[in-house]
Amino acid sequence: MGGQRALEITNPLKSLPRRVEERKKKVVVIGEDDEPIALLLRDAISDEPGYQAVVVSDGALVLETVRQVHADLLILDIMMPGLNGLEVWDRVREDPGVRDMPVLFVSANVPQFDSEFQRRKISTVLTKPFDLNELLERVRSLCPV
What we know:
Layout: H1 16-23, E1 26-31, H2 35-47, E2 51-56, H3 59-69, E3 73-76, H4 85-94, E4 103-107, H5 114-120, E5 125-127, H6 132-142
Parallel strand pairs: 1-2, 1-3, 3-4, 4-5
Helix pairs in contact: 3-4
């Protein structure tokens, strides 16, 4: 008996409040292929109370991810493999299930795509490099907890 350990029984309800709290978090999908920026955004947003961020580095997978995780906000870079951010925007706006979801563009190429933003009536754009506090303020403004 000296070497035997007692079976530890855990109460599944004990973790229930944490699970319920996690469900209440706003889900932010980040379409960004630059890994250091993607990780910075994911960590900073996930550290904010009430938010959970998910990174997708391929534009072609962003829309599928947005649907799967029931995203509350989408942050998009323009230059990504698969579909670029503007193509993702077009597909999001055509999809009745997610068309009303707010989208924030973050790109180093804002001047190059200014006419595309105007044509699509996109006004939520941050230029890289950006101030992280400004980005978090935009997240809170576009997707309040």
